[in-house]
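Hello,

Our lab assistant flagged a job as stuck in the queue for most of the afternoon. It eventually completed. Since we weren't sure the result was trustworthy after the delay, we are filing this so someone can double-check. Below is the sequence as submitted and the structure that was eventually returned. Let us know if re-running is recommended.
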Amino acid sequence: MPRELLLNAFHMNTVGHQSPGLWAHPRDRSRDYTKLSYWTDLAKTLERGLFDGLFLADVLGVYDVYGGSRDAAVRHAIQVPVNDPLMLVPAMAMVTGHLGFGVTCTLSYEPPYPFARRMSTLDHLTEGRIGWNIVTGYLDSAAKGMGLAGQASHDRRYDAAEDYLKVVYKLWEDSWDDDAVRADPVARVYADPAKVRRVRHDGEFYKVDAIHLSEPSPQRTPVLYQAGASGRGREFAAAHAECVFINGPSTNVVGPYVADIRGRAVAAGRAADDVRVFTLATVVVAPTEAAALDKLADYRSYVNHDASLALLSGWTGIDFSTYGPDDILTHVRTEAMRSAVDGFTSADPGRTWTVRELAEHVGIGGRGPVFVGSPTQVADQMIAWADAAGVDGFNLAYAVMPESFVDFVDLVVPELQARGRVKRAYRPGSLREKLFGLGPRLPATHPARNPIPLAP
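-- returned structure --
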């Protein structure tokens, strides 16, 4: 029996996310991102379509690699201005009962002690529907905004991430016993001090001596997402992540990454099925193929090449303003998002990309494929892509907001349901229970569940 596909919507608390220039489309409403109703309406649409979650991207800093300036990013709304994603979650949770929320938080610039409390708070307020996308950052402008000369090297950032996770795992999993909270008004004891222990951590990057400030939340540790596809990123994902986000323009790029991550997870003592893999895609659908192709042509008329290249320059650390439109991208090693370079070069040596082709591709949906056609055709494409790449589901970006998501919910979801590839009802329980069919806690095979001696 074919496995049901998992569906995340991919968005960001900003105007321009994955389709540079499309904010100017007359039907696009992403300029309303500062209004709470924009987000609550989106959440209700996604839950109507039985989406598993809303994956909220985030970035600290500004894309200033293109031309050595922030001007293109500011002029074209290339993920700036950008607001805090976590602030949106309680409102969206209040108008939904099942939709999960994966929020991106850069660990490089926030100490683990207050961050652990913020995530526990969201897990309580959503009744166990929160996930954390673990990122280390990739922009020097973010480091400079935090008073540093520049970001640490790529692999060094992952070394710090390992230490960071050791701290938050101890705080979430080990500081409070399951029965520490008595809430006994007769005895006037809310929590038993003997069942609340101090976390002591003395690592290379982080030091903590404190109890976790939050009582145990439904999941304790949020569902752990990770989006790094570099060699070091895949090693990290295999050890820690429950959901992995892989970007790539073809199954030739994504498929080997998926197989490698699952193999590494097994080597790390986890089950291959402990990891759910999502890939980026954008859908342009209409009742007929001709109408869908017309819609895509209309969207493409709003693509701005400077905007696309400013976004791609920020992702890769390569200044594309120094290239001609017919120049071919070759592999370059940078300290930015290495998988963004690899996906268009070394990961698929049989395909070359000119700068013009890159700008056109990134202009609709970023680095992933675009599925275009009637509902039947789009369903065919999605199923074929998922099966060929071995992914569990998709992070669906939008071209025009909210049109892209409304079209998908109304036209494609029923087609996928008819084929048994999308669920017809939500499972009960937390986000982890919905995604994995198990309990709300991390499985015993996860490193966060290994017993850690703590001080009384």
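-- support follow-up --
The delay was a queue issue, not a problem with the job. The result is valid. The radius of gyration is 22 Å. The chain has 15 helices and 13 strands.
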